[in-house]
Task: structure prediction
Amino acid sequence: MQTKKISYQRQRFAPQIIAHVVWLYARFNLSLREVEELMLERGVELSYETIRRWTVKFGPLIAHALRRRQPRPGDVWHLDEVVVKIAGQSYWLWRAVDQHGVVLEEILRPRRDKRAARQLLIKLMKRWRFAPKRIITDKLRSYGAAKREVAPGLDHWSHKGLNNRAENSHLPFRTRERAMQGFRSPGGLQRFVPMKSATRNHFSVPARRRSALSIRYHRPEAFKMCEAAANVA
Result:
């Protein structure tokens, strides 16, 4: 199925500038005012509020296009959840990554229970259209209960020490959370994390390709992919 191309009609600035601003904000741990300053140094005068509106409007669209270009993931999925404080209330960000550290899915839920684990599993299998060879989780019983309802025959390893891959995937999110001084709303967080992860997936070099020459060729490929997703190629 063809992805609908992003339209920049009725925008004052060129599509290349808008896409570059959204990429800066999603790729690096920069505030809106820092992105504003970087663009001013390049001779482009923007307000931080304009940058915020662009990230809200075009960021999810670009992230969706990037996810559609993402190759088939590995067949071992690591699932984990991390608590996030928003306006004094606790939420749980549920995340799944494959054995290579590629983020597959993220959902924000108010509870850490079977229902949330079940929603994560269903969303994963619906999106990727296959069941993994194995899922690896910590010892939270909600995963086992959800797995028995969604995919009873699925191999499930539940052990704290085996799930470092998923736990490490929370580190970039925590770094960004501190840079932003927290998130203002659940909706804002749910819009932002797929945009951040989709961009990071394309620019993170797989472990098997981390030679200097491979990295040199990987980054131009990632830039071309982002330009195509943003419809500015």
Observations:
- The mean pLDDT is 91.
- The chain has two domains: 15-68+204-229, 76-184.
